Amino acid sequence: MRYRPMSARSAPVLVLTFLSLLQPAQMVKHDNFKTCSQSGFCKRNRALADRAQAAGASWIAPYELDEKTLELRDGVLTGKIWKTEAGGIELPLQVSLLENGVARVTIDEAQRRSGDIILRHDSKARKERYNEAEKWALVGGHKYQKTATMETKEGVTTIAYGPNNYEARITHKPFSVQFLNKGEVYVVFNDRNLMNVEHWRPKIEKVEGEEPTEDEETYWEETFGGNTDSKPRGPESVALDITFPGYDHVYGIPEHATSLSLRETRGGEGNYNEPYRLYNSDVFEYETDSPMTLYGSIPFMQAQKKGSTVGVFWLSAAETWVDVIKTKQNPHALTTEKASTQTHWISESGLLDVFVLPGPDATWVYRQYGELTGFTTLPALFSIAYHQCRWNYISQDDVKDVDRKFDKFDIPYDVIWLDIEYTDGKKYFTWDPLTFNNPESMQKTLAKRDRKLVAIIDPHIKNDGNYAVNKEMVEKGFGVKDKGAEKVYEGWCWPGSSHWVDCFNPAAVDWWKSLFKFDKFIGSTPNLWIWNDMNEPSVFNGPETTMPKDNIHHGNWEHRDVHNINGMSFHNATYEGLKVRLGNGKERRPFVLTRSFFAGSQRSAAMWTGDNQADWPHLQQAFPMLLANGIAGFPFAGADVGGFFGNPSKELLTRWYQAGAFYPFFRGHAHIDAKRREPYLAGEPYVSIIRDAIRLRYSLLPAWYTAFHRASWEGMPILRPHFVMFPEDEAGFAIDDQFFLGDTGLLAKPVVKESATETTVYFPDKQVYYDYFDFTTYRRKGHHQVPATLEKIPLFMRGGHIIPRKDRPRRSSGLMKYDPYTLVIPLSSEGVAGGVLYVDDGETYAHQSGAYIHRAFMFNIGDNTLRSGNLHPDPAKAVAYNKDMRSVRVERMIIVGVGKEWATKKEVEVKQGSKTWKAKIVYTEGKEGKANTAVVKDPKVSITKDWSVSFA
Q1: 36-57 burial by CB neighbour count: b if 16+ within 10 A, else e?
Q2: What stretch(es) of the chain map to CATH 2.60.40.1760?
């Protein structure tokens, strides 16, 4: 949601005047956001890197590990690093070795006596480095490598740990760490000696006429865009270079509108000149192909080379910049190896706290990362169906009319959304008394078709003494404070003058949760869910359109310390409020959408890529961004279908729906000044093509939900890049415009270019691939030209998989609950296939007590038999749920790629329990390059039981 003047009914003239200056332009205003050279700590650390490069081998970093202080106990190494500048600064070191092979390196700064502490007397900020990011980002339960051993020899300490021969080799002077797996170096800390911990120091007032040095100019105060950041603690940035020897591709560190395989950032043809920035910001009409910061930050990066994936997680909630460069050789390789990737991480404050994830492949890295930050929550089924939104549906009658027209045009949808105009004067937890005077009736109308309502609630609270929420928040001290910590911070957002709830305060969180109770949020029902926007936080008159860094949060931490976690703290509180509003024992899985996010946000929210534009470049950009989010542990991600700003052509809108059908979060959305573009308004043939795309999503919901289930316990992305599925195929490492859907073997390449009638698809192996719709067969590895006319989605089935789907069109996903299944079985070149189906009630937490169905399907050419087997580890816990689902059957099986001998088959034998019966089978010979198929009609087998179908 973006800038627009408020109506006179809801804002004073002063606010209108101010916000009129914030009208949309045609592109991002770069002058509103810092470059590295305009950010003091980034400029200083990048300059240090330049000096180090110029000095070459003569460069010596001033960091030495004190060998006498080293101690290894129960998998944790402790010691002291000395920064030899400024008379010697003590930096406590801790290296923690987790059972799963992950290593954590933490470097703090020792507390000093009060006489040495350098904070100004008027500061209310904490007099220590921020050390609470782990409370928000990490989950507990980690065990350590208690059998780890340590050996020190000739200035190098080697720690051996784990069953896979992991090692950490720590060089004492200058300090550096190599991480090895089976003797091979895969990550190096401080390889280029760019480590930097800006130690605390006293502010020395300059005598009259004496000019500060270039560095000192931004030590204690920094001005940008007319805003001055007082820095009461002075400079305290941390930086470290991290090298991936032999790894030519690195991915991750969302959110950026760039390619999946990250580009270099130190200039050169095709490269960027700026580092990737992680500083959650409300970036208006962001541009594509840019390292600029966006709304969310996940400081997780993974590196890929043939047959190997490793990762690093940089745990800092402060503003962070990351440089990426490639080298032509690997000095750490035992043999000749390809280029290495060198990265340089720079954060404004906090600890130097880095996790190394050894893999050895992507599956292991995602599990290791999920064990650190938590796996994505298993969402309610309705939330992965189609959502309809715009800024704004103007009244409850408008909502009912849209609902009715979706039915008239036979287009399914599950959720309709309300933007800020539904409120009474931008006061959240209220309804406009003229246009939404009976919100319960609107929600009841939606519930008749098992549909939901989502309403927006943002963290800015209207500064109105008569507004109960604001009054209570201020009186209880639950708002973010200004830099003096004496009063609640006041800024400007949609309501005009606003305060911001401080969700770092546990008491404020409890209060916020209580606001979602039905007796507090009058007019809400159990059918209402929540959208948290503007939670970076967006502050219209703040520096870089966000909150001043010297504001004070609960615990007396400065905003600079917690900025990138702010959005997560807010959507976590909203999630908990929705979870408990029904009372104990009645919890339903909440749905919360957030714009701002951090590592760990996947535990409680979905995200979208913010305020994109209705143009082809933004359609093209969406998939690399969603893939990056998925591999960074946050797969429940989407982009506004159709583009938020502007008016898409009918072709663009149609192609966007075809692409959006493959977004994990699938929502159409538009700006208030955009023309209405509900799918049924497009006219023919576009309406029919869009309807087919949305119905495709609904038919494949069983496959999508099964993929979400695996992500919820193992961390595998929903959309999988080629390097995840084929880690030996280097030709696919940079591909980010096609992908695989979960474990289905479905390979999708939605068309994202104008006027296309064909496109190029890359098949990464020699396995047979079938067109999903007409069964055209492809058997050659490499690039293929395939048809891609407007009505065509390039979608392919890799042979050897079994895809569960539901083929009966319904108005919403909830109405599909007891519908029968179709199994699509594209046989491999060897004549085999396998697949998985996961089913639960889709809304409660009963699955956590075992109330679910988890089945494996396997077709074996050896005896021409398809079997269903139970994957549930404790079937007794599923008895009641199986009873409820006992009528749900498989009504059709489509076997693709059968031989001509199948033409003689007329019946198949079905066995389920002690019973045996026959079912009809119909063979169709493929023409003009299409595969032969055989269809079993209504075998009547249950999805709750073991069974077999014999084609012998």
Answers
A1: beebbbbbbbbebbeebeeeee
A2: 32-204+231-360
pLDDT, residue 29, reads 86
728 among known catalytic residues:
no
- Residue 181: cis peptide before it, omega within 30 degrees of 0: no
Positions of CATH 2.60.40.1180 in the chain: 820-951
Q: Name 865's Cβ contacts closer than 8 Å, sequence gap at least 6.
A: 859, 948, 949, 950, 951, 952
Q: Assess contact for 319 and 299: CB atoms under 8 A.
A: no
Give the model's pLDDT for residue 9.
33
Please tell me which residue in 414, 419, 611, 737 is annotated as part of the active site. 611
Catalytic residue among 109, 319, 398, 536: 536
Classify strands 63-73 and 308-314 as parallel, antiparallel or unpaired.
Answer: unpaired
Burial class of residue 487 in the structure, from the number of CB atoms within 10 Å of its CB (0-12 exposed, 13-18 middle, 19+ buried): exposed
Task: Decide if 533 is catalytic.
Answer: yes
Helix or strand (DSSP H, E) at 689: helix 686-699
Sheet containing strand 592-594, edge to edge, reads: 637-638, 606-608, 592-594, 528-532, 452-456, 415-418, 386-388, 666-668, 640-641
Single out the catalytic residue among 282, 533, 737, 891.
533
CA distance 356 to 188: 10
Regions of the chain where pLDDT drops below 70: 1-26, 112-123, 331, 333-338
Name the CATH topology of 32-204+231-360.
Answer: Immunoglobulin-like (2.60.40)
As given in the structure block, the two tokens for residue 857 are: 């399907």
- H helix runs in 477-521, sequence order: 506-514
Active site residue 550: no
Question: What does the block give as tokens for 824?
Answer: 């699509």
Q: Which CATH superfamily is domain 820-951 in?
A: Golgi alpha-mannosidase II (2.60.40.1180)
- Residue 817's pLDDT is 98
- Distance CA(775)–CA(786), nearest Å, equals 13
Q: Can you give the pLDDT at residue 122?
A: 52
